[in-house]
């Protein structure tokens, strides 16, 4: 499985060694930790092109009041900006960019990654609530001829630590989210 | 969907020739697979009741042995479907194990009801029947289900009225048409600027106001600015935030919400149930309670963006090949996501369709 993945990616001009993956994921984890310490959703992500970090995304939902500003979407915009600044063709850049993210991209982000034709996503833990690379839907490999191209996933990098951070975050209440009925009931009990 | 409100069906009642003429489209609810699929059948054992007088005792005893807990929708006893049959009634005993009956042959009554818990006097020999596996959710499913075995049906009046085209009054359909026309206008404005001809508007149904108008803004510099994503960011801008700058697209507009009277937004129209989740500052959470009118069915990215934004309803004109609100997925109906919303298709379908065709022809002729 691992071999075919690597071969397919090499054919598309993308190859990353296990050591490289480890190192980039270490950095993404560090970003997630920083986010948690600052009361933000603990998701860290990096977009790496030719061994260069083009984007470091973090969740900006509360700050922008736009629920689509997930770390991956923010990072995509940063890469687009980089392309604009350096006069590079975004299509060519994205087709050779690897996303490193601590949590499985959600359904929306997975579709966005397809539309950008990113070939490879390395991620940490599963996203049981919204995951778009298999947990809820498998948008990453689905047959959607009008929605970009499918991408490969390498999951499981420091998954336990990534889950632990999410758990800590969701224990704290998000003051910006709408009050759910369940939460209200819990509130009465306390 | 055997019967949908026909155009002009109520035209004489409201007497307006204009409305009669303008509304030439039909609205279809996009329901979950569970609602729209046919009836799934499973095999079960039934048995003839030869002595009618013993029915209530037999039902009691057999129900104690086989409570059929997952099949509470099935009635235990039915009148015999074959009029020439010597026995008047038939009773359900238990579900059959799939595949096993073929290999081992039919079970006998004493095999199905061993240990003498039931006095089988008055029963004939068991036979296999197909029974509906799940409770029917729509009247159509009910009609199909009861053909196989009598079934209880707790009709969801809302779903029935949606399926028969009676959910929206003619007056409401006129309003929908107005909103969709604005979306079409936006699509044309975008198309003139070289964008994909897709337009959308966000409406607050409580105040009947258009909050945002947007069109597809995707380009090489930002390929993800689909009309839905544009509208979501416009709403964020109306709430004082947002991310993108749409100054070069004057057709993309938003009305600010900052000074809106919070009591007005909580106004509840008669007959509508509105869960209003407001934040402490009186502003809604992103798109809570709002409706999106869009000329083409949203893609996976946009559909999930609408889940994240807590939209209440989406109305679209035509389906898209990879659409995620009916065509490839029904993301709005998924029980495993934290928000669900209603989706309707077909609003100004013809106009929305020619929008796409026109822009395709344009791009071909420009080549």
From TrEMBL, chain A:
<feature type="domain" description="CMP/dCMP-type deaminase">
    <location>
        <begin position="19"/>
        <end position="144"/>
    </location>
</feature>
<dbReference type="InterPro" id="IPR002125">
    <property type="entry name" value="CMP_dCMP_dom"/>
</dbReference>
<dbReference type="Pfam" id="PF00383">
    <property type="entry name" value="dCMP_cyt_deam_1"/>
</dbReference>
<dbReference type="GO" id="GO:0008270">
    <property type="term" value="F:zinc ion binding"/>
</dbReference>
<dbReference type="GO" id="GO:0005737">
    <property type="term" value="C:cytoplasm"/>
</dbReference>
<protein>
    <recommendedName>
        <fullName>tRNA-specific adenosine deaminase 2</fullName>
        <ecNumber>3.5.4.33</ecNumber>
    </recommendedName>
</protein>
<dbReference type="InterPro" id="IPR016192">
    <property type="entry name" value="APOBEC/CMP_deaminase_Zn-bd"/>
</dbReference>
<dbReference type="GO" id="GO:0052717">
    <property type="term" value="F:tRNA-specific adenosine-34 deaminase activity"/>
</dbReference>
<keyword id="KW-0862">Zinc</keyword>
<dbReference type="InterPro" id="IPR028883">
    <property type="entry name" value="tRNA_aden_deaminase"/>
</dbReference>
<keyword id="KW-0819">tRNA processing</keyword>
<comment type="function">
    <text>Probably participates in deamination of adenosine-34 to inosine in many tRNAs.</text>
</comment>
<dbReference type="InterPro" id="IPR016193">
    <property type="entry name" value="Cytidine_deaminase-like"/>
</dbReference>
<dbReference type="GO" id="GO:0002100">
    <property type="term" value="P:tRNA wobble adenosine to inosine editing"/>
</dbReference>
<dbReference type="GO" id="GO:0005634">
    <property type="term" value="C:nucleus"/>
</dbReference>
<keyword id="KW-0479">Metal-binding</keyword>
<comment type="similarity">
    <text>Belongs to the cytidine and deoxycytidylate deaminase family. ADAT2 subfamily.</text>
</comment>
<keyword id="KW-0378">Hydrolase</keyword>
